[in-house]
Amino acid sequence: MPLRAVPLALALVLLASACKNSSSSTYTENEVVSEAFPSVANPRLVVETFRGRIEVTGSPDPDIAVEVTKAGTGSSSQAALRDLRFVGVGIQREGGTIQVVAARSAGASVSTTSAAHVAVRLPAGASINIKTADGEITVTGMAGGVIAETENGPITIAGGRGQVSARTKNGEIRIDGELLTVEARTENGSIGFSGSLSPAVSQMRSGNGAITVDLPPSADFRLEASTITGTVTCAFNLPGADNSAKTNLFGATSTGAKTVLALHTNNGNISIR
């Protein structure tokens, strides 16, 4: 999506004074761009940033508020300001879809750590699809479906409901909520889930890290759990399950269980409790 200037009537741009990192010779200059969209029907959020954290918070209000903090870095305040000019931000609405895109333009120095941090507050029932190439993702109180992806950084999804997909190549994943259908994948990091699952297939996979699942005592599910290096333990009774092999466990709490919990890690323990 091409980047466009944010309308001055809707955007607030604040240029902060230079901030020097006390532990290095790096200066940072920030610029904040914000925009509000009142009463959006059937909202959907799409966010993509080249580097920076993403924070999304669900609200009972129908309005949507977007704030993007652009950050330029350099060896001096002037260098940081020059770097800041290479950070482009586009915010636009197409029907019920709000799109936020941040990218570095051609000519930017590859040695800087410029970023665009995104914070959005929107109705809890909205669906969201968010991605950062480098940064953490935090989603709170969303019930309309979540797709969250980062190349490098942790993902936290709290108070969720519905379908959740979380993927990171390097970072831990933490998810909690009610009646969730979960797909969680990390190449390097642990996975933790707490809450209840919907009657569907939920998958959690780690290339290197432990997986811990905390379920309510009344949970009824079929378990498919395996690890290459580690052990699998389950606090629930799985009638007829063969637990002689410590590295895998397959069974169900009842013959009619409709929830499937598929867990795998190459290196780490798996615990269901």
Helix content: under 10%
Count of helices? 1
Give the termini separation: 45 Å
Proportion of strand residues: over 45%
Q: What is the approximate shape?
A: flat
Rg over CA atoms: 21 Å
Largest sheet: 22 strands, mixed
Number of strands: 22
- Derived from helix and strand composition plus strand pairing, the structural class reads mainly beta
* Strand/helix succession: EEEEEEHEEEEEEEEEEEEEEEE
Low-confidence segments? 1-17
Report the average pLDDT across residues: 92
Structure description:
The protein has a 22-stranded mixed beta sheet that branches. It is mainly beta and 273 residues long. The protein has one helix spanning 77-84, and strands spanning 12-15, 19-20, 27-37, 44-49, 54-59, 64-74, 87-94, 97-104, 115-123, 127-132, 137-140, 146-150, 155-168, 173-186, 191-197, 201-206, 211-214, 221-229, 232-234, 248-252, 259-267, 270-272. The relative contact order is 0.12. Residues 1-17 have low confidence and may be disordered. The termini are far apart. The radius of gyration is 21 Å and the shape is flat. The chain has one helix and 22 strands. It has a domain at 154-273.
Q: Tags for this entry?
A:
273 residues, mainly beta, 22-stranded mixed β-sheet, 22 strands, 3% helix, flat, disordered N terminus
Q: What is this structure's SSE topology?
A:
Elements: E1 12-15, E2 19-20, E3 27-37, E4 44-49, E5 54-59, E6 64-74, H1 77-84, E7 87-94, E8 97-104, E9 115-123, E10 127-132, E11 137-140, E12 146-150, E13 155-168, E14 173-186, E15 191-197, E16 201-206, E17 211-214, E18 221-229, E19 232-234, E20 248-252, E21 259-267, E22 270-272
Parallel strand pairs: 4-8, 4-10, 5-9, 5-11, 10-12, 11-13, 12-13, 13-14, 14-15, 14-16, 15-17, 16-21, 17-22, 18-21, 19-22
Antiparallel strand pairs: 1-3, 2-3, 3-6, 6-9, 7-8, 18-20
